[in-house]
Design brief:
Length: about 180
């Protein structure tokens, strides 16, 4: 079953016109080494190479910017450890990420009626209004979409979009490393 799902996920990405990648806390230095994460990001970028994609990361470790991903196609609304500006700080300045968030919102506007894959990797309930809930809403309204949610515990797909969703109980980094 797991191999069938993996084949379906990879085939969906291959056939998609657009891919949104949401990266959550399970894909972080808390759970993986720096080397594992960079290898994962580079492998993911190779999978998406040539696609019209965007990456939203909830992580503040800035590792994704050291990968092969185009930094113009990444938004980190929770901030940056290197810049000392993270959402958990009392003096967090959200205006820093807003120009990139605007680019992301414009990109999202082009996903309607497109063959669209939403690839959630390790996205839990830390900031559900940034990724999880909007991803479900996009999958609900875009009849040509597929939500692929990979998480150790919170992999479930809501009943309203079950026919356009794949929930996989796994560590996202290990899942793509296999």
């Amino acid at each position: 079953m797991e191999q069938i799902q993996k084949t379906q996920v990879l085939q969906s990405i291959k056939e998609a016109t657009m891919v949104l990648v949401g990266i959550g806390k399970e894909v972080s230095l808390t759970h993986h080494s720096r080397e594992e994460l960079l290898a994962f990001y580079n492998q993911l970028e190779m999978l998406l190479h040539g696609k019209f994609y965007f990456v939203v990361t909830l992580n503040t470790d800035d590792l994704i910017y050291e990968s092969k991903f185009d930094s113009r196609l990444i938004v980190a609304p929770c901030g940056s450890d290197k810049a000392g500006n993270v959402v958990t700080n009392p003096d967090y300045d959200e205006s820093v990420y807003l120009p990139q968030w605007k680019s992301y919102q414009q990109w999202l506007g082009n996903t309607l009626n497109q063959k669209f894959v939403i690839l959630e990797l390790g996205v839990g309930m830390e900031y559900p209004t940034v990724l999880r809930f909007p991803d479900e809403k996009m999958a609900y309204f875009n009849q040509k979409s597929l939500l692929c949610r990979i998480h150790r515990n919170l992999y479930q797909i809501p009943a309203e979009i079950r026919e356009r969703g794949i929930g996989i109980q796994a560590d996202p980094v290990a899942y793509f490393a296999q």
